[in-house]
Amino acid sequence: MPTPSAADWRDWRWQLRNRLKTADDLARHFTLTPEQRALLDAGQGFETGVTPYFASLCKPFDPTCPLARQVVPDAAEAQTAAFERADPLGEDIHRVAPGLVHKYPDRVLLLVTDRCASYCRYCTRSRWVAADAEHLGQDELDAAIAYIAAHPEIADVLISGGDPLLLSTARLETLLDRLSEIPHLRLLRIGSRVPIFLPMRIDAELVHALRPRRIPVFVNVHINHFNELSAEARTALALLADGGVPLGGQSVLLRGVNDDADVLRETFFAMLGCRVRPYYLFHCDPVRGTAHLRTSVDAGLELMAKLVGFTSGMAVPKYCIDLEGGGKVPLWPRYVDQLDRDMVTLTNFRGERWTYVNEPRTR
Ligand SMILES: *Cc1c(COP(=O)(O)O)cnc(C)c1O
Ligand code: SF4
User: Is the CB of 144 under 6 A from ligand 2?
Assistant: First the structure.
């Protein structure tokens, strides 16, 4: 590849066109074992794609780089454990209209595109993402919106994919306009990794499209490691925050990436520094071929116990497991030892035992 001009580098379409996909592309930045090359050459696994921008943030030729581990296929992807699933969240069984998952009483998940700027090896939706469905067609989108309009119990629409910020600004704008006209909706939110993989996509027109209508539009950004917050990513997040877009963060707990209390603390503070409030830390779902990126639930709880009370509560997200079809379960280190009718025994964040008076219920 010839050296890109500065204008090319800042052009998000150039970044997408020039994603690293093949073994030869990746070998320019990363050390590949013969097994990794064989896996890439076979071309059968989950889609590979890394923007040149994100590759430039990775430590060159260092397989332990926490950013490279998220996007470069490992030979271990070829191994599937018995409990691993293609659809670990049971989304397909809760689909009520094209691209629409209705699992919780008052909110739905709308999957508008199967495209992402780069592909995370642990992607929960790898069965479906980059599988050529591309963007939801007009008829499909109409059917999904008709379902939402016909269900007054729905208050909140989470727009995800794939990455909704890869839709054209005009399409996104129309979608947000149409949804905000549904009178019973109270909240729209978008889940995206574009500010991390493709920060040059965030421009003034996009920020304008994300403005609040009758109801607010939140953007939750998927961020796993403080090294992802480069000068370009910080600029993109500042454009969104300055434009009045409320920002939340969601992270995935990944072995060799962020399964360390210091890394998590630093990452969550770095997010707050970008005005992104950490919202969820997800336990990595049992997606096929991802065992090498998962850690144990007890390790996750130990990490949470090292954060809660020891660092700003603003920097502590909810740690969650998403059950196959059962929804998200928040996990919290154990602080309640015993709950009696007149007394509660508690352990504080320092591990000290306390008792606290429990008052009788009055109603
Ligand atoms: C995560 C999720 C939501 C949103 O859940 P919150 O806890 O409100 O953030 C909605 N629908 C589906 C299917 C989800 O997976
Ligand atoms: S950005 Fe999200 S949807 Fe896209 S590959 Fe990564 S985890 Fe999957």
Answer: no
The pick from 70, 114, 116 for probing ligand 2's pocket by mutation, whose C-beta has the most ligand atoms within 8 angstroms, reads: 116
Which residues on neighbouring strands pair with residue 281, listed in sequence order? 251, 319
Domain count of the chain?
3
Specify if 83 maps to a domain: no
Rounded CA-CA distance 143/138 in Å is 9
- For residue 86, being part of any structural domain is answered with no
Same domain, 152 and 134: yes
Q: Which numbered atom of ligand 1 lies nearest the CA of 103? A: 13
Please give the average per-residue pLDDT across 252-276, as a whole number: 98
0.85 exceeded by the pTM? yes
Helix axes 297-307, 261-273, angle to 10 degrees: 60
| Ligand 1 pocket test target in 100, 103, 125, 128 with most atoms within 8 Å of CB | 103
Rounded Cα distance, 206 and 176, in Å: 12
Q: What is the pLDDT of residue 128?
A: 85
* Whether residue 10 sits in one domain with residue 158: no
**Same domain flag for 35 and 162:** no
Q: For the segment 322-348, what is each residue's pLDDT rounded down to a tens digit?
A: 998 889 999 999 999 999 999 999 999
Q: Is 87 among the domain residues?
A: no
